[in-house]
Amino acid sequence: MFSPLFTLALAAIGLLYLVPALVARATGRVGHVFGREAGSVDTFIPEFWARTLLSSLKKAHVFAAPGVVNRNYEGEINEAGDTVRINSVGRPTISTYTPNSTTITPEKLTTAQRALVIDQAKYFAFEIDDVDKRQVQGDVMAEGMTEAAYGLSDVADQYVEALIRAGVASANALGTIALATASPAAAYDNLLIPLKVALDEADVPQEGRYCVIPPWVHGRLLRDDRFVRADAAGGTGNGVQGNGAVGTAAGFSVRVSNNSVNTTGDDYSVAAGHPSAVSFAEQINKTEAYRPENSFSDAVKGLHLYGAKVVRPTAIATAVASKT
Q1: What is the pLDDT of residues 248-275, one digit of tens each?
Q2: 3-state SS track over 262-301
């Protein structure tokens, strides 16, 4: 039997540890209890992670990347269903001026307004067990957020690719083009050049054009001297440049994406155009860190809101590239 004084001392020591633990659990502050370092929930700053996620998204995009779409009307996105208003102005009439004769009467410009609806809402949610976090080296939370960004980016890219393919002007949809394996020049001559001509004939600006191709078409282009050599390509050299960009050819910034859809058999979609054709807006609307009730873990969830609209269908050209 312990003496009453010894029992009282043990109880006091227990309270010194128990009370901070209960307070930490009740307030969500999980750090520095029983010698534990501050966990990711303690140090989680929603604004910082939202900015980091958005930056990672922009680096991972191909179809939704700057240079393929424009973000001119991104504005403030607060909730799913928000609408971004896109205003367009008609082209004024160009007339001949004769000195001392012509009376100039200004015309009223025609205007039109389109609505870009933020109708896509995607989320992620993952947790990291306290035990696993102790056993794994490195910042597991940061790595998880990076993977979440790439996952969100992949889904958004597929959305924009489908929008571009469906929104192209019918005259610029070139149909199926066979790229014979035996002909190294086929991808350049039979695919890129016709896409270029279609955009030329639609008065699409030369500067800033893109072409997104599947990896196997890139492989075919690598067999063509005009794509590989910097002097033959008329550029500064072709290599990986970010957002899937791998070089320049036929006036295009050429980008590679696995989201170039396999339409049927060995046929794959190819899209070319100008950033003015598609407006895209996105926002990491919410990021929250929390401690799940039914586990000993840190968890984080985030909401990605976005939408896109084809505003200039004639500034897009598409084709279906066939391996055979």
Answers
A1: 999 999 999 999 999 999 999 999 999 9
A2: EEECCEEEEEEECHHHEEEEEEEEEEEEECCCCCCEEEEE
